[in-house]
Amino acid sequence: MPGRDVPDRDLPGWGLPGRDRTGRDVTGRGVPDQGSVPPGGPRDQVAGSTGAPAAQPPGSGTGNGTDPWATADPDGYPGAHEPHTDTGRLVPPGTTAWAPDAAGPPREPSAAPRWARRPRPSPAPVRTSPDADDLLPPLTPPSGDTTRTAPVGGGPGVRPGSQLFLAAAEEDPLEQAGARRARHRARSRRLSPRFTVGLLWPIGALLLVGLVSARLLHGTRLPDDGRLTAPAFALLRGDSGTGLPALSPDGLGALQTAVYATLTRAFDRHATLVVAGRELLLVSVLVAGLLLWRTARRVGLSNPSCAVALLAFGAVPVITPVYLASSPGALAVPWLMLSAYLLAGGRPAPASGVLAAVAAVLSVLLAPDVLLLGLAGAAAALVTGAVLPRWPASRRLACALALGPLFLLATLTLDRWDPQPASPGRWGATSGELVTVTVVLVLVGLLGAVGLPRLRAAGIALALTAATTVAPSPGRLSALQVCLPVAALLVGALAQVAVRRVLAVRPAVPSTATGRPRPGSATRSRRLLPLTQLAAALALGAAVVTASLALGRAPTSDFGDRAHRATLAWQEQQLAPDAVLVGSGRIWSELVHAGGDPARVQLAGDTPADAPGARLVVRTTTGAAPQPADAVATFTSSGVQVHVEDPDRGSPTPAAREQRRQLAAALLTNPTTSDSGQATGQLTAGDVDPRLLSLLAGMSAQFGVGLHSLPVVAGEEGTGTLTRVAVLDSMDGVPLDQDPARVDRLQAWLSVQRAPFAPDVVRRTPDGLLLAFHYVPDPDALVERATA
Predict the structure, then answer these.
(1) Is residue 374 a part of any domain in this protein?
(2) Measured between alpha carbons, how far is 763 from 468 in angstroms, rounded to an integer?
(3) Residue 514: its pLDDT value, please?
(4) What are the φ/ψ torsions at residue 725 (nearest 5 degrees)?
(5) What does the pLDDT average to over 247-267?
(6) Vertex 206: Cα angle to 203 and 212 (nearest 5)
(7) Which has the higher per-residue pLDDT, 345 or 542?
(8) Are 619 and 668 found together in one domain?
(9) How many other C-beta atoms can be found within 10 angstroms of the C-beta atom of residue 665?
(10) DSSP output for 507-529
(11) Is there a single domain that holds both residue 14 and residue 150?
């Protein structure tokens, strides 16, 4: 029988030549074919009690080089069998079988030798499905030639000598005449190659998704950036001020981010926490894409169809930045796909089942929308009979209806369990983009429910979840994130079904003119299939190359790193040592990560109300946000604005403004004072700190000074903060860079001044001598109290 692994026998001296499966002589000894013995025909017969060999049927012959014991296999497999006696010894041809008990007749020889009594391996299965790397369905060609679908090596119902068997033998080198099959099964096994050309489809698609996602993650900063990295950074520092419950979506997402940062040292490798968080988002996208590919393979999709699913998975972030938002839902997608991968292969092993359950629970805790997806899918599977098919339909329908109240309850409590951003703009989307994506999700779910019987439950679950959670304004980001991989899987399956229908082979229709078979549209589609595959491969390769070049040329964003460092430098130079910056968790973690002193950069709520020194609030904005009214300084970098605000900032009274103008006029009217035009404009406008004005007025009355400039501190432009810095370039009309003694004399005079008129910073510069005061909330009130 084809597919049996029975080695040929060749016993010299006994006249048993080896033969192949077709019954042909492969030793050249002239043994005739045994095909005259019909399949299932009589075996060697024993004549009476004399032990003489049985007479052979006509055509088989004995003597003259023939084999008296050569019989036909009951299944039509010709071979040489060895007669056995009761003692199991071989009996030479032409002799009588010896029996130990002469009183009784000798036993019939065994039907098969001992070497042929081992269990026969099952025949090679008939290939009823197309190759995994091919989209073509297992259909019969129009010509009716069944050899194209014949299994390699034969199969059930294939007889030796038939056309189908010979065609299979031509494909299998071991079936050629003269080839000896291995005596051991382990040596006759063939290992299928681990890598095939078809794997390039999903690999290329996954690479393209990764490149596009990396390019998008290099974009501008979003308002929700740092939602997970900030509490994760605080968690690693041992700070319990995050206030996030451990099992809440944000708390569990922060814990997973902290674990990732610990294993990969992401917080130490990157300048900002936002970059570390986006690296985690990129890893999540790649892992989810890989699991989507393997899940699609388990449900029966070919490699090109898996590539289509991956491209659909990565196409939505191009329309709307779904995976750019730092949210627990993005981290829930890999866990969801891991659970789907473990359960897609049928009944899993106990360990796989436990792991799938753990992954499903984690995905629900990270994104409660997964619970809605699971409840809808379970109800749909019960109704369609995908699960528990042996149950009566009425019982399955009752169980599905019992899941309805749970679905409704979960929908109503979803916003309390996991609140979402009030506006899609917080994660970079618009209302129009959200509506478009929602319509696409519902449409894909309905098409999958109608056209994919095996994935009908997934299609129903997708359409129902998208309609109840994504469609209502403003839409749930986490629901959109967990629905995308399901939609991508359905898109790949729909594409495979569509291609198979296009390439379906129909019987050829005879032409009325010539009478010859006329190829139909499907045949023409099959002829164009190689060109289509080549064009698709070239397009995919070109897209990968283009994405690689775009990623290399993309402008690099520091996500506010320069602004954070400028804020810390401003604090070090312009604030008193006891002044602190207070901010929320995100800006606090960024400033501390950038090198800020935790004693001077504190979380909101950790600073006591009676603490000495100024308490300035720090917050960040993105985009074209207006500058706060009470901002003292603003630092901008890569679209990120860091605002330093003073809630205790005093407003000058009209009397205080008049006093500033009087001091400025006295300074300018002093004949010993020289100044530049820039200094004159600031003095007359009254935008100079009264402490600096009083000091300059005293110096001009004592020595006579020359004002080089009144520079504005970096970051304070346009904030309304008074100028607190002055650069002196001469004394008594003599340039300071030409007379170091005058500089020493001036520094000695400044060192004996009392607060609040003693400058906080005195240092030499290439332009002269720089004088600066620290920022205080109300300098007018401070000077008024000092001079009262």
Answers:
(1) yes
(2) 67
(3) 57
(4) -125, 140
(5) 94
(6) 140
(7) 542
(8) no
(9) 12
(10) PPEEPTTT-SEE--HHHHHHHHH
(11) yes
188 contacts 12 by C-beta, under 8 angstroms: no
Question: DSSP secondary structure string, 298-365?
Answer: HTT--HHHHHHHHHHHHHHHHHS-TTTS--HHHHHHHHHHHHHHHHHTSS--HHHHHHHHHHHHHHHH
Q: Answer whether residue 391 shows pLDDT above 70.
A: yes
Domain boundaries, position 54 = 1-190
Phi, psi of 211 (to 5 degrees): -65, -45
Q: How far apart are CA 767 and CA 344, in angstroms?
A: 75
Question: In terms of domains, do 641 and 661 share one?
Answer: no
CA-to-CA distance for 672 and 670, rounded, in angstroms? 5
For residue 398, give Cα distances in angstroms to 376, 403, 454. Answer: 14, 9, 22
Among residues 116, 114, 111, the alpha carbon closest in space to that of 5 is found at 116
Q: Are residues 464 and 567 both part of a single domain?
A: no
pLDDT digits (tens, 9 = 90+) for 157-170: 444 444 443 443 34
Same domain? For 346 and 495 the reply is: yes
Dist. CA 215–CA 756, nearest whole Å = 53
Give CA separation, 432 vs 135, 275, 320, 440, 606, in Å.
36, 28, 10, 13, 42
Do 571 and 446 share a structural domain?
Answer: no
3-state secondary structure of 204: helix
Strand partners of residue 621: 641
Question: How distant, in Å, are the alpha carbons of 119, 131, 155 from that of 122?
Answer: 9, 21, 9
- Give yes or no for residue 499 having a pLDDT over 60: yes
What pLDDT sits at residue 309? 97
363 falls within a domain: yes
For residue 710, count other CB atoms closer than 10 A to its CB.
23
pLDDT tens by residue, 746-764:
889 998 898 899 999 999 9
In a shared domain, residues 621 and 755: no
Q: From CA 488, how far away is CA 381, in angstroms rounded?
A: 19
pLDDT at 256 over 90: yes
Rounded to whole angstroms, the Cα distance separating 423 from 261 reads: 29
In contact, 284 and 268? CB cutoff 8 Å:
no
d(CA 628, CA 644): 9
**What is the SS3 assignment for 260?**
helix
Q: Is residue 521 part of a domain?
A: no
User: How far is residue 151's CA from residue 158's CA, in Å, rounded to a whole number?
Assistant: 10
Q: By the 8 A CB rule, do 209 and 314 touch?
A: yes
The SS3 of residue 675 is strand
What total of structural domains would you count in the chain? Answer: 4
User: Within a domain: residue 455?
Assistant: yes
The secondary element (H helix, E strand) that includes residue 734 is strand 734-735
Which of 18-32, 210-224, 225-239, 709-723 comes out lowest in average pLDDT?
18-32
- Whether the predicted pLDDT of 254 surpasses 80: yes
Q: Token match 């009325």: residue?
A: 512
13 pLDDT higher than 50: no
CA distance 579 to 596: 13
Q: Among residues 190, 216, 238, which one ends one of the domains?
A: 190
Q: Is 396 helix (H, G, I), strand (E, B) or coil?
A: helix
What does DSSP assign to residue 32? P
Q: Which two tokens stand for residue 53?
A: 């060999």
Tell me, what's the pLDDT at 150?
38
pLDDT band at 113 (very low <50, low <70, confident <90, very high): low
Same domain, 589 and 665: no
Q: Which two tokens stand for residue 125?
A: 């299965």
- Separation of alpha carbons 172 and 166, rounded Å: 10
